[in-house]
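Checklist before submission:
- one chain only
- standard amino acids only
- sequence pasted in full

Submission:
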Amino acid sequence: MAASIYQHAATAPISAFFILFLFQFLTGSYSATFTIVNKCSYTVWPGILSGAGTAPLSTTGFALQPGESNAVAVPAAWSGRLWGRTLCTQNTTTGKFTCVTGDCGSSTMECSGGGAAPPATLAEFTLNGAGGLDFFDVSLVDGYNLPMIIEPQGGSGGGNCSATGCVVDLNSACPTELKVMSSSSGGEESVACKSACEAFGDPSYCCSGAFGSPDTCKPSSYSQFFKSACPRAYSYAYDDGSSTFTCASSDYLITFCPSPSTSSIKSGNGKYPVAVQVSGSHRLDNNDVVFNMIIAISVLIGFWRFCQLN
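Returned file contents:
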């Protein structure tokens, strides 16, 4: 009996520790949640690309109807980018899925490792980077197609946790030589704005070749068009000082069309985008939950067998 009591006393702290570990594993195995919100009056198809050496997320592309939101769980130390695709269609004969702006070349709604074809407004993240901080920015280096803002949620412990993005319409004001024109929405109009690098391929605009350093690559009149409209967004490759933001222990709210806009991109019913109320239908991908449960149960069985042997 004494031995039984001793064994119980010895294993109780271990059991309590294991329960705590299991709880943390199930509830804290992801470092962040990205809540992606569409406040445009037209459908946006977010695309997600993980950085080199970083595991892909459970979803790499989906549709957001006006007012809809989607919560995506993001693992620790993840890096990558997120953007919105517009004017997407699926061929009724071939089934091929394509978008006029931000297309990732996968031919499906999931981008599956494909990046955004420029021009596209990009949200870029490196989570748990130097000093344990998250680094994030909104980049117009590859051009612009949608208003977008990143807002940290509940960050603590470091960084300034400031919101950043580009909330104004740049398509209608875009210089003529940078405009991407399309008739997909019912009339010829500007649906995106190229970067000068994409439009002209000049190394001085692309910060390449002899211009591949901060000392030699300087802002151009074109990059300053983006910067004056969106002071917190990246406007060219070496625009770090005023365009990179940090936070710690934060979730992130990423919103398309965060404020009323006069953007020239029309929705399917011909209306211009305006801010709309968000439905609040946040959802966590079921595959993530199932995967976590399987791993947790496997660990629990292993621990039970260990206790039986001891």
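Reviewer check: DSSP finds five helices and 13 strands in the chain.
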